[in-house]
Amino acid sequence: MPKYKIHIDPKLPGPEQIARHKDFKKLYGDYQTATRFRFWRELRTNPRYFATLVMIVAVGALVWQAFQSDEKKAKPFINPPFAVQNIPYQEVLLDAETGKDIKMDLLQIKVPPLAWADSSGEAINEGEIRLAYRVLKDPADFFMAGLPMHFVGSEKYLEASPVIELRAYRGEESIQLRKGVAVNMAFDGSSKDSVLSVFYLSEREKGWAAWQEPERELLFDEEAILASLPNKPRLRSIRSDGEVPLDELRPKGVGASAPVAQGSSNADENDYRRRLADWEHMRDAALAAARDSAALRMRFQASRLGYFGLGEIFDAEVSKHKIKLVNQQGKRIGPKLHKADETVYLYEPGVSTLRPCRYNGEGKHWIERSTEGEAMLWMRLPDGQMGVTMIYPDTEEATVKASVGNREGLLLLVK
Amino acid sequence: LPAYHQTKSQIQQEQNEILAAQRDPKRFGPVYERYYDQIFLFIIKRTGEEMLAADLCSQVFLKAMLNLKKYRFKGLPFSAWLYRIAINEVNQYFRDNKATRHISLESSGLMHMLEEVDEREGEPEQAQIAHMLRTLQGLKPDDIQLIELRYFERLRFKEIAAILHITENNAKVRLSRILKRMRKKMEQPTG
Fold it and tell me: Do A12 and B44 touch (CB under 8 A)?
């Protein structure tokens, strides 16, 4: 049987006959149908497509796993950006049995006797206790200490000045206050601080919470201020109230026995009243000035150890700004963004709070700032430099330059 | 002449059409119109059935459109790429269906080929042709393909090389060996 069917000079279809089969519309329709589900069709037949899918799934799984493990290794709630530049603690040794009064410039800590318990709650009745404390004065200190400043369960922020941290150790063991015992704290601020309340940083609830209203005492010596004033004016004219002896008011010498003229008496009295009013005005002004400049001692009880902040809750009108980290070519620096909340902070001097960048978990980051006033944008790169730039209410795009190793010129855009 | 014999400016113009079609497949229309007849005839010569040729021809153009983004201009007419797809489609059809291949030959091409393979003298021409056709039956499909492209599609070696995805030199060597084999076979006495 012949292998091929050979035709010599076969009669082939002419152009008109061929044209009957020509249909570009149908071809385009077939093309659209084919491209619509092409990947899945190819997947069944083409090993390359299958390998691609396997690779995508594998990469996806790895990314997911990395993300998961990132979540698992969640950063500590209190996370100092630069360990070496953290605000140092001051330490004092005290006897567990007797307690101690610690006085510094602005802070007083009164530890009562038998105040301590170990981590299991067992009372510590004797031995040496190491009390570590520090005063964080302003947002720069909060930043260095890695303190979040947001209020528990809300969008509000704590504007604090200062934050006091208190810790205690027996040897290297961290210990706590005995149940029902409180350390008396007193902090000397200024009279302007009379609006401040005490807040506590809950590491369990991850945010600041109201603690108590402090007892307030203005520290000034009224008697000393009064003593420094000129003598209070005395009535020198004629009066029948006995304040001044009558004979003093009478004219001396010739005509001394003559009756006192009514007019003279009135003139003296008027003069007295004027001088008295002047003196009282001077006294009030001196006392007001003393009050204004006086220290305000705020006392509160710390029945647990940790961070206590004297401040106010801030709920300013803020605007949201989307941010992204990009390199000099404008290319997004992807994975780092997931940690942007550790990377970007905003400090507004007028608000005196440090706000971290927020991440919505879906690739979007933003930072909030007041609609008024200037602010400082901080960018901290892992193991790298810290870049800072000023932004203003009308700033739509800002650049912060910093570098990590040989990766220089990373930018932060705010839009 | 078949459309694969083009001037440089024609090739360049065609290249612009292909680029436009790569961006928007709807613009593949002019290319389709230009080459449909050629590809259709190319297929029907090998299959011998009009409807089958129309079906395979549609498949060729659909594959061309689907893979158009992969097409890279290498200085040859676009038809070379279409022919390659067409050959693959036809071969695939015969592999899948175990159908008998058709070989369509023109007399002029046949004579030209005969001059190259049969150096014997004295034998009548009809007998020589019949002898050569019997010899063709003994060739492999790949060899037949090469002969078809060279003697009956009248393509240059450069174009054959592009269609079969081999080098030009390789195309020449392969054809020369096929002819040598045929010559040897034809010198044997017919039995």
Answer: yes
Residue of A nearest to B110 (CA): A8
What span, in angstroms and rounded, lies between the C-alpha atoms of B111 and B109? Answer: 5
3-class SS of residue A102: strand
Out of A4, A7, A27, the one facing B61 most closely (by C-beta) is A27
Read off the DSSP letter of residue B122: S
Determine the Cα–Cα distance for residues A62 and A56; give it in Å rounded to an integer.
10
Please tell me which of A68-82, B33-47, B175-189 the model is most confident about, judged by mean pLDDT: B33-47
Query: Which chain B residue's Cα is nearest to A35?
Result: B66
Nearest CA in chain B to A3: B137
Residue A245: what pLDDT? 46
Q: At CA A212, angle to CA A210 and CA A218, rounded to 5?
A: 130
User: Residue A9: which of B28, B58, B107 has the nearest Cβ?
Assistant: B107
Task: State whether B105 and A7 contact (CB < 8 Å).
Answer: yes
Q: What is the ipTM of this complex?
A: 0.84
pLDDT number for residue A104: 83
Rounded Cα distance, B191 and B188, in Å: 9
Q: Which of A170-179, A325-334, B56-65, B176-185 has the lowest mean pLDDT?
A: A325-334
Do B133 and A38 lie within an 8 Å CB cutoff? no
Which residue type sits at B51?
M
Instruction: Give B169→chain A minimum CA distance, Å.
Output: 28
Considering chain B, what is the average pLDDT of its residues?
A: 86
Angle separating helix axes A38-45 and A47-72, nearest 10 degrees:
110
What is the pLDDT confidence band of residue B87, given thresholds at 50, 70 and 90?
Answer: very high
CB within 8 Å: A22 and B36: yes
- Taking CA–CA distances from B63, the nearest residue in chain A reads A31
Torsion angle, CA of A275/A277/A279/A281, rounded to 10 degrees? -150
| Chain A closest-CA separation from residue B94 CA (Å) | 12
CB B110 within 8 A of CB A8: yes
CB-based contacts of A316: which residues, under 8 Å, 6+ apart? A351, A370
* For testing contact with chain B, the best of A21, A38, A41 (most B CBs within 10 A): A21
Answer whether B157 touches A (CB < 8 Å). Answer: no
- Cα–chain center distance at A293: 27
- For tokens 């609006």, name the residue: A195
pLDDT at A414: 56
What is the signed CA dihedral for B163, B168, B169, B170, rounded to 10 degrees?
-10
Amino acid A388: pLDDT: 76
Name the residue facing A15 among B37, B101, B104 (closest C-beta).
B37
- pLDDT-flagged residues of chain A (< 50): 237-239, 242, 245-247, 249-264, 335, 337-338, 340, 409
pLDDT in tens, B101-160: 898 888 888 888 888 776 666 677 788 888 888 888 889 988 999 999 988 888 888 888
pLDDT on residue B88: 92
pLDDT score, position A261: 42
Instruction: Please name the residue of chain A whose CA is at the shortest distance from the CA of residue B133.
Output: A6
d(CA B48, CA A119): 94
Say yes or no for a CB contact (<8 Å) between B133 and A6. yes
Nearest Cβ partner for B110 among A3, A8, A28: A8
